[in-house]
Amino acid sequence: MTEPLLSVRGLTKDFQVGTVFSRRRVRAVNDVSFDLPAGRITALVGESGSGKSTIARCLARLEQPSAGQVLLDGEDVLRTERRRASRAYRRKVQMVFQDPFGSLNPVHRIEHFLTRALVLHGHPATTEALREVMTTVGLTEDMLQSYPHELSGGQRQRVAIARALAVEPRLILADEPTSMLDVSVRVGVLNLMRRLRDERDIAMLYITHDLGSARYLADTTMVMFAGELVEGGDALAVMDAPAHPYTRLLLSAVPDPEQAGSYDPAERARLREEILNPTSCPYGADGTCSRTEPVRHIVGEDQGQPHWVRCHLRAPASDIARRVLKATDRPAGEATHDTAKDTEKAETTAA
Ligand SMILES: Nc1ncnc2c1ncn2[C@@H]1O[C@H](COP(=O)(O)OP(=O)(O)OP(=O)(O)O)[C@@H](O)[C@H]1O
User: Signal peptide position in this chain (predicted)?
Assistant: First the structure.
């Protein structure tokens, strides 16, 4: 088995919120570990506020993790580049933001964004280089002279991907890259990501709350709930045989176009009840999962689709590690990220 390109170990992120008089800590990400192999798309799915963007922002070094390791090619960059990421790290790990409108400054032509990315990372911004990167993302060379408002949302997101690609990254962190796009152009961006994986061996972390697109695009899927990873593995295995009550709840919201009546509000209500009901799901009010951490174990072997889940309900009794967790705040409130500022920070804070 080949080494993963990037490994995350025990990643934890706390935010301080509130006023000077009522400071409190919000744990947005708690002890998360996973690998991102080259040439694979890994989807990170979960509802709003579950901590997906915080993970991406920690990996892009826009946020400083509170604890954990981020190993790029086996080297813990949080130790070796403690204060801020090196230029080499930023070149290898690029981020594409959700908002294709906010991430491109309207006063500049497209050529400016790509030239700037190339120059910042030490590549000559030749006409040939610009043409190549535009062609790769399915845009024409004449669009280099356009302003962002002259392009469609889908085209703008392709420019954002082109900007990331210009520096020849090995990992792209794509945070809801299609959620602001019209359905008709979404699939084009998803297909572009797939092509980049296949042709350039790029690793991708695809963050989404759209399970349909995760199923369409991803090789591996990880499910995030309240700051923790609860289930993961082969994308089809997770989607076809979800083991965690929360994954089943998420999937129950996705209608199957080939199956009439597949969106069943009564079934969805039952699943929600299963999560909230202390006798059926320890994530509920009896708090088993907040007192003792469920260990990862494998499910679905009997159906030939093994993947992992962290759930007391699914654990054989012998598997349950009775490790007492520190009391942690659960995520609350809304994140306020400014895409334009983030883009600028991601570009310019290279050491
Ligand atoms: N800068 C911040 N300051 C305080 N709390 C934050 C900050 N950024 C995120 N959070 C909190 O951390 C939690 C996780 O937020 P995050 O944006 O990572 O979730 P998400 O799963 O990406 O949601 P969405 O899909 O809505 O973007 C939320 O409760 C959020 O309010």
Answer: none
What is the CA(51)–ligand 1 centre distance, in A? 6
The number of the ligand 1 atom at minimal distance from the alpha carbon of 331 is: 29
Ligand 1-lining residues (CB < 6 angstroms): 15, 17, 26, 28, 46, 48-54, 209, 331-335
- State whether 125 and 148 are in the same domain: yes
Does residue 44 form part of some domain? yes
pLDDT digits (tens, 9 = 90+) for 136-160: 999 999 999 999 999 988 899 999 9
Task: State ipTM.
Answer: 0.96
Query: Among positive and negative, which fits the CA dihedral 350, 51, 32, 208?
Result: negative
User: How much distance in Å is there from the Cα of 164 to the middle of ligand 1?
Assistant: 23
Same structural domain for residues 134 and 249?
no
Cα–Cα distance between 103 and 315 in angstroms, integer?
44
One domain, residues 120 and 208: yes
Distance CA 111, CA 159 (A): 10
Q: How many domains does the chain have?
A: 2
CATH number of the domain at 168, please: 3.40.50.300
pLDDT per residue as tens digits for the range 152-203: 888 999 999 999 999 899 999 999 999 888 887 889 889 999 999 999 999 9
Which pTM does this prediction carry? 0.82
Positions in the chain short of pLDDT 50: 278, 280, 282, 284-285, 316-336, 349-351
Q: Residue of the nearest CA to atom 24 in ligand 1?
A: 48
Q: Give the domain extent around 306.
A: 235-319
Cβ-count burial of 57 within 10 angstroms (0-12 exposed, 13-18 middle, 19+ buried)? buried
Indicate if 199 and 147 belong to the same structural domain.
Answer: yes
191 shares its domain with 96: yes
The closest-lying atom of ligand 1 relative to the alpha carbon of residue 224 is: 21
